[in-house]
């Protein structure tokens, strides 16, 4: 049994996609990040960066005590190794997947996240910041589009790289991107959206946070975007 500490954000969706694809036995433990659940002492014991998702695996493969993992990329790698799925064992194929996972973790996620922030949440609209992150998101979409030319998936067979990248493309309109400009990415995106496990994963999120309740209040923005070393722990 795996406990998934989760909220329906792109990083949260990565993990439900994997768990649904693998048919894993898991329980969602909601972490309402708009209400500050990520600062609870019990959550910080397993996720010291006060960010979800995080997991606790009560039956790790080494047969010892439960193990807690935070950071979505690390969780995907852990689950892939535990189940023997969605991460190749051969050297070149394995690192093909890992490098695209790291591309998402270090590039697409942070850049698209700043795009979201300055476009949607910042109290002051700063044209330079908006332009900077919309353009960088566009550049990264172009990298992905070129990678997907002649490929069904990002790194050979369907893998944790696809699971990590897809949720960050879902809000493409909010990021100022048109999928029609990226035909190979668009083809891949539409195929991903039709996967039954992906649909189930997003349905789980909708159960926890219906779309009608997804607008942030000013107080929630303060919780999410006003953290310092003193307030963020």
Automatic annotation (TrEMBL):
Residues 90-214 form the GST C-terminal domain. Residues 1-87 form the GST N-terminal domain. Gene3D superfamilies: 1.20.1050.10, Glutaredoxin. InterPro entries: Glutathione-S-Trfase_C-like, Glutathione-S-Trfase_C_sf, Glutathione_S-Trfase, Glutathione_S-Trfase_N, GST_C, Thioredoxin-like_sf. Residues 209-233 are annotated as: Disordered. Belongs to the GST superfamily. PANTHER family: DISULFIDE-BOND OXIDOREDUCTASE YFCG, GLUTATHIONE S-TRANSFERASE-RELATED. This is GST-like protein. It comes from Stakelama pacifica.
